[in-house]
Amino acid sequence: MPHILIADDHPLFRAALRGAAAEVADDIETCEAASLDDVLAVLDARSDIDLVLLDLHMPGNHGLGGLAAIRAQFPAVAVALVSANEDPHIIRRALDHGAAGYIPKSAGLDELRDAIRTVLACEEWLPPALRPAVARAPSAPADADLAARLASLTPQQFRVLALVAEGLLNKQIADRLDVQERTVKAHLSAIFEKLGARNRTQASVILRELEISDPARQVEN
Predict the structure, then answer these.
(1) Residues 91, 102: contact at Cβ < 8 Å?
(2) Could you tell me the pTM of the whole model?
(3) Where are the extended beta strands (E) located within the chain?
(4) CATH number of 3-136
(5) Which of 12, 41, 65, 70 gets the highest tally of CB atoms within 10 A of its CB?
C-alpha cells in the first residue's frame, strides 16, 4: 500500500492532490501537513511514507531547503515538488537537488494523476509542456557541488545546520535535539569540514543559497 504525505498550506490544493492520489490506486493512503516542521515530524514518526508532495513555498520552506532537509534526513523517501513557479531553471535546480518530480499548480487532474503514478513507480516526472525548456536549462555547477556537500551530512548534522541557520546557539541546539552541548560542537566541526565553511555564518549562508523567492507572495506584499 503506497503512503503519500501531501505538504501544502492551502487546503484546497491539498484536497486536489488527495483526490488525484485516490484515483491512482484504491489502496493509496494519504496524510497531510501544512508546514515543513509538520512534514519532518510526520516523517520522523512514520517510516512507511513513500512519497512527499512538497509545496515549494510553505511555512518553514522557502525554496529548496525543505527538499534538502528531507533528502538528508529521510533519503529513502521520494520528494516531488509542487509549485506555481514554472521557471525551467528553478525546475532544473530542483532536479539537481534530488527531486523526483516537479508538479505545477496549474496542472489538470490528468497530469496530477500521471505525476503521482510516475513518481511512485520510481521514475522522474515533469510537466510535458515544460520538458523541452527544462532539458535546455543547464545544470549550475554550484548547485551540483552544493547538493553533493549537503548529501555528505548525516541526518543529525543536517538538523544541527538547519538550527544554526535559524540563529540558535549551541546550548539552544543541544536542548532542542536533547543532546550534550559537546555533541553539538562535534557536529559543527564535521559540518564545517564537509561544507568547506570556516564558521557558523558561512555555514548558514551555504544553506540559505537554497532559498527561492516566491513571486506570488511578492505580488501580495
Answers:
(1) yes
(2) 0.87
(3) 3-7, 29-33, 51-55, 57-58, 61-62, 78-83, 101-104
(4) 3.40.50.2300
(5) 70
